[in-house]
Amino acid sequence: MSLWEQAFPIITKKVSFKKMIKSKVEKVDLYSNILEKKMSMLVYLPTTYNHLNSLPVLYFLHQRRGDENIMFEIDIHTTADKLIETGKIEPMIIVCPRMENSRGVNSSIVCKKIPDPVKSHRTIHLGRYEDYFIDEIIPFIDKTFKTINDRKGRYIGGASAGGYTALHNAFRHQDKFSKVGGHMPALLLELEDEYKSFYRDMNDWEKYDPLYIVKHNDISSEMKVYLDAGEKDEGRFYEWCSIVHNMLKKKGVNTQNHLFPGHHNTEYVQSNVSKYLEFYGSI
Fold first, then answer.
1. Is the pTM of this model over 0.85?
2. What is the three-class DSSP state of 69?
3. Is 37 helix (H, G, I), strand (E, B) or coil?
4. Segment holding 254, helix H or strand E
5. Is 234 left (phi over 0), alpha (psi -120 to 50) or beta?
6. 240-278 pLDDT, tens digit each
7. pLDDT above 90 coverage of the chain, percent
8. Which residues pair with 140 in a beta bridge?
9. Burial class (CB in 10 A: 0-12, 13-18, 19+), 278
10. Which residue of 21, 128, 159, 240 is surrounded by the most CB atoms within 10 Å?
């Protein structure tokens, strides 16, 4: 195995772009050296991919019971096609990686699955998922595709638990991202029992809590933040979005917060995906 193969995930399905005449979604299987297992992602490439030198990348993360197929579940690929074609957004690459039910945190040195202590039918995934995303997925995408390898051309967003993951990644790694969206993000004011398995102690939880991060750290004024939730969100996450939004505003961050019709479900995200893309891909 070469040094590059040891350092980065390995494509197990070859990607060919020479004959691409329309947009496409590629499933890419990769081996994560950090998690020590094969993972997958879906990558959307716009129609103009072959005609441009480099494109911005949006990483869009799934909810805790989801996977990379959020790409199709919310029709983000077809919506991107329409918005690019009508000139409402710039062409971009969209990556939906498999994050499992991990909350995107470094919860264990060894990757493992455990039963949810509150809901036994559900599985929790522990491991170095933050490192997997930051140190493997992003470098891999930049090596494999024609990306803008800079924070100015790199955005991150997600739904529910994916929104939580997007926010803590953006705030903890401000050198990596210029835009972040938390769409009905699963934020908490206190550590509840069903989430305790992800964190070794309160310090660990605070390290990843977007509210705590914003309150106790500087957030770059160059960061653009988009928050939203449904007015009938069962988790009342619109309340936490408002708190984060107000804290960011006081720090001079370019932030917006929206309350849209809907519940905490996939249908809500799908109904607003065009608004999200216009935020990430605004020209």
1. yes
2. coil
3. strand
4. strand 254-260
5. alpha
6. 999 999 999 999 999 999 999 999 999 999 999 999 999
7. 84
8. none
9. middle
10. 159
Rg value, the chain, Cα: 18
pLDDT in tens, 220-237: 999 999 999 999 999 999
Task: Quote the CA–CA distance of 127 and 130 in Å, as a whole number.
Answer: 9
Q: Using alpha carbons only, what angle is made at residue 160 by residues 101 and 191, rounded to the nearest 5 degrees?
A: 70
DSSP string, 3-62: HHHHHS---SS----TT--S-EEEEEEEEETTTTEEEEEEEEE-TTGGG-S-B-EEEEE-
pLDDT band at 200 (very low <50, low <70, confident <90, very high): confident
Give just the sign of the alpha carbon dihedral 13, 17, 21, 24. positive
Q: Which amino acid appears at position 146 of this protein?
A: K
Q: Which one-letter amino acid corresponds to residue 11?
A: I
**Token pair of 139 as six digits:** 């470098």
What is the DSSP track for 177-229?
-SEEEEES----SS--GGGGGG-SSHHHHHHH-HHHHHHHS---TT-EEEEEE
Residues forming beta bridges with residue 124, ordered by sequence position: 114
Those residues whose C-beta lies under 8 Å from the C-beta of residue 47, and which sit 6 or more positions away, are: 21, 22, 23, 81, 84, 85, 91
Cβ atoms within 10 Å of 114's Cβ, excluding its own: 11
Beta bridge partners of residue 60, listed in sequence order: 157
Assign 282 to helix, strand or coil: coil
CB atoms within 10 A of CB 241: 25
Helix (H, G, I), strand (E, B) or coil at 70: helix
Which carries the bigger pLDDT value, residue 112 or residue 9? 112
Task: Give the residue-averaged pLDDT of 40-66.
Answer: 96
Kindly state the tokens that stand for 188. Answer: 């908490």
Instruction: Give the phi and the psi of residue 26 in degrees, each rounded to 5.
Output: -105, 135
Q: Are 7 and 32 in contact (CB under 8 A)?
A: no
